[in-house]
Specification:
mainly alpha, 2 domains, two-stranded parallel ribbon, 5 helices
């Protein structure tokens, strides 16, 4: 069995041969998710991704996407990419539909409460999902 030791979910190291086989991380979004897709490609090629619990990494929980709601849409792009690349069309469309519905419901809620800025962020999420669905058709 071949191993790719990972010291934390979003940092790590890999053997050169493994990277040659699976390629580099895809940078679809500006805010996270690319390491999950990269690990999945290692796993699909027979490499074993290993979590190393003794590693210490200071990561103050979603400093990027947690504080800026607008960056949540960037995380969405990574999820859509993952489902489009590694899932069936049915799963991709099911995830996309549910994501669109969640954004639409939040858009309606914020709009009714008069929270224009928050509503615009949710509307942008709807637009992103629609763009990815059109691209997959």
């Amino acid at each position: 069995m071949m191993y790719i030791p990972m010291s934390a979910p979003d940092i790590g190291w890999a053997e050169i041969e493994a990277v040659r086989q699976v390629g580099l991380m895809h940078t679809v979004s500006l805010a996270g998710g690319e390491e999950t897709e990269w690990h999945y490609r290692f796993w699909r090629r027979g490499w074993r991704v290993v979590f190393y619990p003794e590693a210490e990494v200071i990561h103050y929980g979603q400093q990027t996407t947690g504080k800026l709601r607008s960056l949540r849409n960037e995380r969405l792009k990574s999820l859509l990419y993952f489902f489009r690349q590694h899932s069936s069309r049915v799963n991709f469309y099911a995830f996309s539909t549910l994501a669109w519905l969640a954004f639409w419901i939040r858009w309606a809620y914020y709009s009714l409460r008069g929270l224009r800025e928050e509503a615009e962020i949710e509307l942008e999420g709807c637009r992103i999902v629609c763009t990815w669905i059109k691209g997959a058709a």
